[in-house]
Amino acid sequence: MIGLAGTTIGQGLLFDTLVVRSLMTPSITTLLGRWFWWPQRVRQRPGPQPWPKPIQREPEEALV
């Protein structure tokens, strides 16, 4: 059972390496053209906002 699982994983890795990454990805890139590189226009991130000032509280009287 473990040998069967190992063989299946090994075949999947070979398929991914030899077929998907070397043939399918470049062909899909060619077919989609510019649409492959979505988002084409990246919005600029807003600038950092200043930290809010800490609230100044009056010292509380000690409870006796």
Search tags:
single chain, mainly alpha, 64 residues, 1 helix
Question: Concise description?
Answer:
The chain contains 1 helix and no strands. It has about 60 residues and is an all-alpha fold.
Describe the structure in your own words.
The protein is mainly α and 64 residues long. The protein is 48% helix and 0% strand. The longest helix has 31 residues. The radius of gyration is 29 Å and the shape is elongated. The mean pLDDT is 85. It is a multi-pass membrane protein. Pfam families: MMPL. Keywords: Membrane, Transmembrane, Transmembrane helix.
Question: Would you spell out the secondary-structure blueprint of this structure?
Answer:
Elements: H1 2-32
Low-confidence stretches: none
Q: What is the count of β-strands?
A: 0
Helix run count = 1
Strand content: under 5%
Straight-line N-to-C gap: 75 Å
Biggest sheet: strands, sense, closure?
none
Alpha carbon gyration radius: 29 Å
Shape: elongated
* Average pLDDT for all residues: 85
The helix/strand order is H
Estimate percent helicity.
Answer: 40-55%
Structure classification: mainly alpha
InterPro entries: MMPL_dom
Domain Membrane transport protein MMPL: 3-48
Region (Disordered): 43-64
Protein name: Membrane transport protein MMPL domain-containing protein
